[in-house]
UniProtKB/TrEMBL annotation:
EC number: 3.1.2.4
NAD listed as a keyword: no
Keywords tagged on the record: Hydrolase
Substrates-to-products reaction catalysed: 3-hydroxy-2-methylpropanoyl-CoA + H2O = 3-hydroxy-2-methylpropanoate + CoA + H(+)
Enzyme class: hydrolase
Transmembrane regions: none
Entry superkingdom: Bacteria
Residue span, Enoyl-CoA hydratase/isomerase domain: 19-339
NCBIfam families: PRK05617.1 (NF004127)
Species: Streptomyces graminofaciens
Stated name of the protein: 3-hydroxyisobutyryl-CoA hydrolase
Length: 352
């Protein structure tokens, strides 16, 4: 079995029988994505799409901690402070990779074992066959760093049952395998004890056959029993009203959700809610990615993004100083401005 690495070894490409294997190989960083990794994965998918001997593609993460913890947000912070050009280029290629993953014509098996956040969701949850294990911990935590769900996250969350996606986006909560299946972020549960056998089987049998042999019923999640208050509280036009309903409902989990939301960037929260509502009305993933690119680029000029990354990742004091600091101080016009067209700089996935 040949192994082909990129220049720094952060992505390993294996040809194993009928399978093309992608291994994200930055275990110390929980396989966080940088621009070179995105380009390498995209090139591999393009090659394997045309290679008749490759019947299935599998993406996994090196190490024991997870598939992928997201993008390299330290680099995004530094870039935001100095102009943002590198981040725009990174997102352009990353979102195009997300679109390619979604329309990949062969079985694309994403093993969402361990931590899967942000950009990790982007390279997995758009795939055709998404596998979770009892160790899976999946989240779109962007509002906690002064940003918004991207990589097609607003597409996925806007199409979760009821208001579950709004709940996950505004709280940044992690979910396990049962809730990932409920929310439409995963397709099958394979226990970690059977994962090695499943991956070996893919080399010789079709992906669906391997899944039938190794998948099991998932452990029950928590969100199904919370749907009544989640749907009632998050079916509101403003974040302020959502928080008010959460406090009023009297359920301990609802109060905890309200506390989580109030710790996040007010600007990011309001923009995220509008992005989800608009994504729900858009016809497909590519239209949503075009929208997300506009919003992401606009956030490079918002002080909350570098401040949130500083507080959560750089200094780790967990005390971001948001600006504005309250939901009421974020004017609707400022939120609307994040969705303004970019002219010639559009991502352009749906451009004629």
């Amino acid at each position: 079995m040949a192994v082909i690495a990129d220049d720094d070894g952060s992505v390993l490409l294996h040809r194993d029988g009928r399978v093309g294997r992608i291994t994200l190989n930055r275990p110390r960083a929980i396989n966080a994505l940088d621009h070179s990794m995105v380009r390498r994965i995209d090139a591999a998918l393009l090659d394997w799409e045309r290679d008749a001997e490759v019947r299935t593609v599998v993406i996994t993460g090196a190490g024991e901690r997870g598939l992928c913890a997201g993008g390299d947000i330290r680099a995004i912070r530094e870039d935001a402070l100095t102009g943002g050009g590198a981040s725009r280029a990174f997102w352009r290629d990353e979102y195009r990779l997300n679109a390619r993953t979604a329309r990949f014509p062969k079985p694309y098996v994403a093993v969402m074992d361990g931590i899967v956040m942000g950009g990790g969701v982007g390279v997995s949850a758009h795939g055709g066959l998404r596998i979770v294990t009892e160790r899976s911990a999946i989240a779109m935590p962007e509002v906690g760093i002064g940003f918004v769900p991207d990589v097609g996250g607003t597409y996925l969350l806007s199409r979760a049952p009821g208001e579950l996606g709004t709940h996950l986006a505004l709280t940044a909560n992690r979910i396990g395998p049962g809730d990932a299946l409920l929310c439409g972020l995963a397709d099958h549960f394979v226990p970690t004890a059977r994962l090695g056998g499943f991956l070996d089987a893919l080399a010789s049998v079709p992906a669906e056959e391997a899944i039938r042999a190794f998948a099991e019923p998932a452990p029950e999640g928590e969100l199904g029993g919370q749907r009544p208050w989640i749907d009632a509280c998050y079916d509101a036009d403003t974040v302020e009203e959502i928080v008010g309903r959460l406090w009023a409902v009297g359920h301990p989990a609802a109060g905890k959700a309200a506390e989580s939301i109030m710790n996040h960037s007010p600007t990011a929260l309001k923009t995220t809610l509008l992005a989800l509502r608009r994504a729900r009305a858009l016809p497909g993933l590519e239209e949503v990615l075009d929208q997300e690119y506009r919003v992401s680029c606009a956030f490079l000029g918002v002080p909350d993004l570098p401040e949130g990354i500083r507080a959560q990742v750089v200094d780790k004091d967990r005390t971001p100083r948001w600006s504005p600091s309250t939901l009421e101080a974020v004017p609707p016009a400022a939120v609307e401005a994040f969705f303004a067209p970019l002219g010639d700089a559009e991502l352009g996935l749906t451009r004629p």
